[in-house]
Amino acid sequence: xxxxxxxxxxxxxxxxxxxxxxxxxxxxxxxxxxxxxxxxxxxxxxxxxxxxxxxxxxxxxxxxxxxxxxxxxxxxxxxxxxxxxxxxxxxxxxxxxxxxxxxxxxxxxxxxxxxxxxxxxxxxxxxxxxxxxxxxxxxxxxxxxxxxxxxxxxxxxxxxxxxxxxxxxxxxxxxxxxxxxxxxxxxxxxxxxxxxxxxxxxxxxxxxxxxxxxxxxxxxxxxxxxxxxxxxxxxxxxxxxxxxxxxxxxxxxxxxxxxxxxxxxxxxxxxxxxxxxxxxxxxxxxxxxxxxxxxxxxxxxxxxxxxxxxxxxxxxxxxxxxxxxxxxxxxxxxxxxxxxxxxxxxxxxxxxxxxxxxxxxxxxxxxxxxxxxxxxxxxxxxxxxxxxxxxxxxxxxxxxxxxxxxxxxxxx
Length: 412
Hints:
Number of helices: 2
Oligomer: single chain
Radius of gyration: 19 Å
């Protein structure tokens, strides 16, 4: 990349997706590092009791809304979450004393009470945005995008590893990966994580000499955050930029989805691939794709509808009314759940969540209380079992956006 990218503008348009699945054995992964429960984009299953034989998450569950950072300053943005089998972890951005943002982290019990934190994750005096979370074994990986303000290559993906008690196990690590044996020094954005046995797959979009625009990549990290081998292209296509990266992993492999500029219209198109396979178009128009183990795929048709594709099945339109966008999937024990946003006015949105049948048909839809979730910041869905969900979102009016977490019991 040959020009400085302004991080806030890139990340404010809702182009970032993520997946935080339960660890599985994926091709090229390290040896088993543990992990319990069923496959889930929100972490491990809540059944079977907590650590030390205590009550399960479902037994503790209390529906309602939690403000994760009640004493923190406005603006609180870029909220994200994952489940470690006992606690829900939430990360978000707080402004620092200047005009930049830092990443913060906290853990909550399944009744919504604070267990650990808030903890400041970031260590540099740069603009640190767009955190994502994933648990592998007994470790929590926090990744984000950093803007050091010094172009042309001013954007980096950084990450840090914590224990499940909230202790930092590493300092900040800046992703230093190779492609075809050569170091990549261009800008990197749009981190997405999928746990595997012994570590994680980290996907994102970066600039390199073989393409003039961002291209999707995937690289393996071990349990200590050390890069394992070369990064892989998702599907090198120099003619089009690739953004809105999502990754998941299951027994069939590592799956990546992304959004490109369409070749047939002004709308974007959504694509996906299994590493080592052939890339396939999901939809044109197609935007903001997301993945869950199976693999399940979902995307929006650039605002007019949501389309879900179950494993091995045909795409299933939601036939939604209104302007709908930013879908997310979560899977626990082969049971899928869908989240999407619906514009109410301007950048204000409702948030809907529904359990899906095996063919992708939504069941009873739960609509959150908020009518003002801003579409410029991501909304995050974590399932702790097949019926209990947490949705992390921003609420309020700019610049006083506040982080919220709503605890839901769904009907299947």
